[in-house]
């Protein structure tokens, strides 16, 4: 089966600019996650979708980050305006359901964002 | 959420068995334990998962004592390609969180 697709692979922007990342999960996966991974740290969950509804966005900095999954398939994560501390890898993951014990996550390769 | 503690880094040599222990003293009754592996420039990849006792698959074994306050990931006969960061996650369904992980370096 095809994996989780993410684009772009790399992005360099200046602070205060905006940027968007795209994720296409594995076909049939209802649950989609966005993670932020700062260099040397583990991934941090930003937001979780179940179909096109938000399940958990408690760690999403809502003043500058937004995400949507309008048709319950692919998703977009946006940062506006970007700060230097947003430099990180943004990982998308999907799962057949929220029952991760039986289905687990599959991660994409991520988008590496550098804010200068 | 159960907090996990792992060694920051470990070194090993090709062909050796590597054991990485994760401490999770406040694990809840419904929590299970999952290990992921991450190579540079890739997303984490599922290795193994368990609730209690021992679980084995083609890649690794997971040992969980009766009190479930810790778990040990065992990688038999590691190779250079096993150099990666290994994460221990404890939780129930979508409540799992990643810690800093253990950076394993396998030397020739």
How would you describe this protein?
The complex is a heterodimer of chains A (116) and B (108). With 116 residues, chain A is mainly β. Chain A has one helix at residues 100-103; strands at 5-7, 10-13, 19-24, 31-37, 44-50, 53-56, 65-68, 75-79, 88-95, 106-107, 111-115. In chain A, the strands form two sheets. In chain A, strands 2, 4, 5, 6, 9, 10 and 11 form a seven-stranded mixed beta sheet that branches. In chain A, strands 1-3-8-7 form a four-stranded antiparallel beta sheet, with no helix packed on it. The longest helix of chain A is centred in the C-terminal third of the chain and has 4 residues, at 100-103. Chain A is globular and about 40 Å long. By secondary structure, chain B is an all-beta fold. Chain B has no helices and nine strands. In chain B, the strands form two sheets. A five-stranded mixed beta sheet of chain B has the order 1-9-8-3-4, with no helix packed on it. The mean pLDDT of chain B is 92. Chains A and B meet through strand 5 and strand 10 of A and strand 3 and strand 4 of B.
Layout of helices and strands:
The complex is a heterodimer of chains A (116) and B (108).
Chain A: E1 5-7, E2 10-13, E3 19-24, E4 31-37, E5 44-50, E6 53-56, E7 65-68, E8 75-79, E9 88-95, H1 100-103, E10 106-107, E11 111-115
Chain B: E1 9-13, E2 18-23, E3 32-38, E4 45-50, E5 53-56, E6 61-64, E7 70-75, E8 84-91, E9 102-107
Parallel strand pairs in B: 1-9
Antiparallel strand pairs in B: 2-7, 3-4, 3-8, 5-6, 6-7, 8-9
Major sheet summary line of chain B: 5 strands, mixed
Sheet/helix structural class of chain A: mainly beta
Total strands of chain B: the figure is: 9
> Topology as H/E string of chain B?
EEEEEEEEE
**What are the secondary-structure elements of chain A, in order, as H or E?**
EEEEEEEEEHEE
The averaged pLDDT of chain A comes out at 92
Straight-line distance between termini of chain B: 39 Å
**Oligomer kind:** heterodimer
What Rg of chain A do the Cα atoms give?
Answer: 13 Å
Biggest chain-to-chain interface with counts: A-B, 26 and 20 residues
Uncertain spans of chain B? none
Rg of chain B computed from alpha carbons, rounded to a whole number of angstroms: 13 Å
How much helix, percentage-wise, in residues of chain A?
under 10%
- By secondary-structure content and strand pairing, the structural class of chain B works out as mainly beta
Number of strands of chain A: 11
Strand content of chain B: over 45%
Mean pLDDT across all amino acids of chain B: 92
* Morphology call of chain B: globular
Kindly report how far apart the N and C termini of chain A lie: 37 Å
């Amino acid at each position: 089966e095809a994996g989780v697709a993410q684009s772009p692979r790399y992005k360099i922007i200046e602070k205060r600019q905006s940027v968007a990342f795209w994720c296409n999960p594995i076909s049939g996966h209802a649950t989609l996650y966005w993670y932020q991974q700062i260099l040397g740290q583990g991934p941090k969950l930003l937001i979780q979708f179940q179909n096109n509804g938000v399940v958990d966005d408690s760690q999403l900095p809502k003043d500058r980050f937004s995400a949507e999954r309008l048709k319950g398939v692919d998703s977009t994560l946006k940062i506006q305006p970007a700060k230097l501390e947003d430099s990180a890898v943004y990982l998308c993951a999907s799962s057949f359901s929220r029952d991760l014990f039986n289905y687990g996550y599959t991660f994409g390769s991520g988008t590496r964002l550098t804010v200068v | 959420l159960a907090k996990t503690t792992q060694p920051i880094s470990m070194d090993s040599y090709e062909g050796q068995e590597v054991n990485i222990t994760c401490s999770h003293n406040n694990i809840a009754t419904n929590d299970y334990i999952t290990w992921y592996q991450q190579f540079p420039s890739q997303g984490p990849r599922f290795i193994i998962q368990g609730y209690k006792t021992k679980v084995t698959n083609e890649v690794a074994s997971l040992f969980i004592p009766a009190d479930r306050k810790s778990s040990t990931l065992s990688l038999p006969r590691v190779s250079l390609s096993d150099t990666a960061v290994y994460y221990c996650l404890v939780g129930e369904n979508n409540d799992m969180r990643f810690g800093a992980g253990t950076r394993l370096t396998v030397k020739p």
